[in-house]
Amino acid sequence: MSAPVAAPSVTRTTVLTARDVGVVIDRATILGGVDLEVRTGEVLALVGPNGAGKSTLLGVLAGDRVPTSGSVEWQGEALAAVGVGELARRRGVLLQETHLSFPFRVVDVVRMGRTPWRGTERAAHDDERVAQALLAADVLDLATRRFPSLSGGEKARASFARVLAQEPVLLLLDEPTAALDIRHQEHVLAQARLRARAGDAVVVVLHDLSLAAAHADRVAVLDGGGLAAVGPPTQVLEPDLLSRVYRHPVDVIAHPVTGDLLVLPRRAAVHDTEPLR
Ligand code: ADP
Ligand code: MG
Q: Which ligand is nearest to the CA of 95?
């Protein structure tokens, strides 16, 4: 038996530093006191219950939402000071939902990812990058389909292809796997890991904690707008913490064959189930 091949070491540089970030909307505190580093070479999973503030935080990290308090810096430079065009070359965002009223074809949607590179040397690679992205997101066979006619999962993959075509250093993905079947969940997250392996930084919002355990280098747990924990999956995905944050008993076990961490909600018999409060 050959010795396991060590994963190639990837240089980890902090691209984004969020310090004491807070967001208040209509006097409601949506985020408060969030300190977080986003590093190249890493997949950072953002997890937490519905309404915890994951999408809001992703918007702040994307520079799309200016925090009410605190700061976000891109390698020492205030994120708010980075121009729109430059921001579009640095970071790609996959929103939780993509609405396109015009019936663009999938290939056109993916090509939109190349817009930030218009007029630069990189534009020479547009066709190649679009083709690679269609393949990487497994939407080559959907290339000429109209985007609004796609299923939810197909739309998510086409949107992921657009982000890949954009070639950002930082990928911010909001629940990219929510509508995907098992094969495509694994496929999309494997692609995200490939980007990290190539030196990009990936932040991905996930609900499936076993997926987070399998694919993330670090996991950040958001609860009520604050970070409950940040660290490697083995450290953070811990039953007491998760049961508290999700307000539901959770077990964490190691897969008997692969050793993968499995996060499982404990299930009561239906006659013991009380209405959700
Ligand atoms: P998550 O992505 O973790 O489910 P969000 O970041 O979308 O949560 O939202 C966090 C909380 O902030 C939710 O309770 C949501 O209803 C609230 N929220 C988000 N945007 C607004 C807004 N524009 N106005 C009022 N409340 C908002
Ligand atoms: Mg969300």
A: 2
